[in-house]
Amino acid sequence: MEFVNRIVDIATRAVNSNAVINVCLLASFATLGVRSMNQQKTIEALQDEKESLTKSNKSIRKTLWDWKQQLYAEASADSAVVPLARLKAIYGEAPPPPRATLADTVTKDANSSGANKIIA
């Protein structure tokens, strides 16, 4: 029991001592300073990566734009595999061709003059 009382007495003196409090505050300040430096290095690395990605994206966009313009130029020729109007519809630069709706199909079927089969 005497050992426990001695530990409690040492802990009480340490809590009341300004030197111990100052050491704890200094250790906390140093820890926060190191953490702040690490975070600053991480932020700088991420900013460099962001700039690199931005340049890369601009380069890719320009390349895609050039390819698209080349594709349009090739499609405007008479012997194109895919016509220019179809390409513009694919890329959303022209309205798509009108689609037949169910109502249009029903109307066409009702008005058709084809032969009707009669099953008896």
Automatic annotation (TrEMBL):
Enzyme Commission no: 4.2.1.33
Assigned keywords, A-Z: Coiled coil, Lyase
Domain of life of the native organism: Eukaryota
EC category name: lyase
Region (Disordered): 98-120
Any coiled-coil regions, as ranges: 36-63
A GO molecular function held by the record: 3-isopropylmalate dehydratase activity
Composition bias, Polar residues: 108-120
Any one GO CC term of the record: mitochondrion
Protein name in UniProt: 3-isopropylmalate dehydratase large subunit, chloroplastic isoform B
Taxonomic lineage: Eukaryota, Viridiplantae, Streptophyta, Embryophyta, Tracheophyta
